[in-house]
Design goal:
Helices cover 79% and strands 0% of the residues. It is an all-alpha fold.
């Protein structure tokens, strides 16, 4: 672990969700030293997001991705940025971001779960339930559900088709 990673981890570990300003200030100090570092930009965005300043966080998340954020931090950024856009009422952009994140991280259960919230917010209730059923089939290890996996997947496919039919007739 580099000294920068250690410093970021230390700041993150000391955060107080009820008083994020010291964390924001500490991350901004690091950002002043590393203005284009993708991980630093992501952490600044996350601190503002946790503080409820989604409009500020959005710009940092975008910059982090443009600067080449990768790995686990990129997966988390897709989730946090997509949720931030949903909270800001940018539902189509949120859905696009979740689609891109799910393409890059298809096994991510958390991206799938938070994508459901965007689908629901868009009024795409069939797609949201379809996605939930697919997530259950893909990620819940249960002999009881395994017996009905084909039914879960069949119902998921049916529900996804309902949203497509609805959008074509609108």
């Amino acid at each position: 672990m580099t000294s920068l990673e250690t410093r970021l981890d230390t700041i993150f570990s000391a955060r107080d969700r009820e008083n994020m300003q010291p964390t924001i200030d500490a991350f901004l100090e690091v950002l002043a030293e590393h203005p284009d570092h993708p991980e630093v930009l992501y952490q600044v965005g996350g601190a503002y997001d946790t503080d409820g300043q989604e409009a500020v966080a959005e710009g940092y998340y975008q910059r982090a991705m443009e600067a080449g954020l990768d790995g686990e931090s990129l997966r988390k950024c897709y989730l946090q940025y997509g949720s931030t856009l949903r909270n800001l009422g940018e539902l189509e952009r949120s859905a696009e971001l979740f689609r891109a994140g799910r393409e890059q991280f298809p096994a991510s259960l958390s991206l799938g779960v938070f994508e459901l919230l965007t689908l629901h917010a868009q009024g795409r209730h069939h797609a949201a339930l379809s996605s939930a059923l697919t997530l259950f089939a893909d990620h819940v290890d249960s002999p009881e559900l395994a017996r009905y996996e084909a039914a879960l997947r069949g119902n998921a496919k049916y529900l996804a088709g309902l949203d497509r039919q609805t959008s074509q007739t609108s």
